[in-house]
Amino acid sequence: MKKIKNGKFIFIKKNNMRYIADFHIHSKYSRATSSQMDFEYLNLWAKFKGIQILGTGDFTHPTWLKEIKEKLEPLGNGLFKIKSEKNPSVYFILTTEISCVYNKNNKVRKIHLLIFLPDLSSVEKFNAQLSWSANLKADGRATVGLEAKEILKIVLSISPYGLVVPAHIWTPWYSLFGSKSGFDSIEECFEEYSKYIFAGETGLSSDPSMNWRLSSLDRITLISCSDSHSPQNLGREATVFDFEDVSYQKIIETIKRKDKNHLKYTIEFFPEEGKYYFDGHRNCQVSFSPSETRKRAGICPVCGKELTIGVLHRVEKLADREENFIPENAIPFKSLIPLSEIIAEVLGVEKNSKLVENEYFNLIKRGGNEFKILLDLDEDELKKIASEKIVEGIVKMRNGEVKKIPGYDGVYGKISVLRDLEKKESKQGTLF
């Protein structure tokens, strides 16, 4: 509590708290997902990471919804906690991802949507309506044959506090602006309901600065989430809020209003590390920048088929601004490398190795949590808990002093803070 003088009056101002939120995750009932994606592990890993608000993910799946009801307790503010915890540090918010696959304007569209709902009653109503057009038991991320606009209409009909956010909006195969099956604008997709789209998720292969190149996106809030399929990947992207006290309604209203007083910044991958940043062909081991792709008329020089057009190329095609433009109402962002990746680079081993795991938990024990280490501790504090090389890596990451090999067509990129990356030569002599 701080006393602040304002003219002749003295009033008390409560200190606000930082809430790091990761809304977009999946449960163990989604395809290609870790069996550890249950509430016990999610709660534990959120603490390791320093996440305070975590999406439940997958609330359309009947078995997962049953676990939500059995293991979580509503707090009366639209958020939930693990029932067994008396003093929770992690709160859960009801979210799910929907895959909309449909035909519109003579083209197959595949759009992923992140859905927020305020209570279990709303979730049950939503699931009941979806069950008419989807087998909700088949996958944690339900696939429906409905237009994205129709999903938005259903959410709005159920609750005025529901929110629909187009997910990873630039991914080639399943997104609003995706090169393979997306649209060129929010309005083309959602038509008269576009005014109810208040936010978009950047995805791993884009960051806010890339999105700022489209003036049409100035009105929406850019949020970031991990889309995690394993506990270890929680928080690889996240959204950071500042509240005196938190609730579902405050989170939703902050996003809707693009309220910079309470939405402080997003946490991003360096987008080159995302697996769809550049154009290319995974099977042919060919990766191109947008200019190189244009020289080749979009055709793979190895197999003669069309290249998968990546996020950077797609942004350049739709952009009406130059690089480095910053809108007046832009919300800042910070680009981070996951702590395990920095440790792995220092040790010269894979990030999933036992050596990395041991050092990771050693640092968490000393430093508190991953975000505290990556964001908060100054260099002198870092030196008390970590080796010289790890400290050097964290400092360079914070300064943006990184080396990059862009990802492409489903292949993650490589980011280094301590050494030069070996550039592999493709069959046609292009470096990637």
Notable characteristics:
432 residues; TIM Barrel; six-stranded mixed sheet; four-stranded mixed sheet; 29% helix
Fold and architecture overview:
The protein has 432 residues and is of the alpha/beta class. It has 2 domains: 17-272, Metal-dependent hydrolases (TIM Barrel, Alpha-Beta Barrel); 338-398, no CATH class. The protein has 14 helices and 20 strands. The strands form 7 sheets. The chain has a 6-stranded mixed sheet. Strands 10-8-9-11 form a 4-stranded mixed sheet. The chain has a two-stranded antiparallel sheet with strand order 1-2. The longest helix is centred in the C-terminal third of the chain and has 14 residues, at 354-367.
What CATH architecture of the largest domain would you give?
A: Alpha-Beta Barrel
CATH class of the largest domain: Alpha Beta
Q: Helicity, in percent?
A: 25-40%
Number of helices: 14
Shape: globular
Oligomer: single chain
Mean pLDDT: 93
Task: Indicate the radius of gyration in whole angstroms.
Answer: 22 Å
Strand order of the largest sheet: 7-4-3-14-15-18
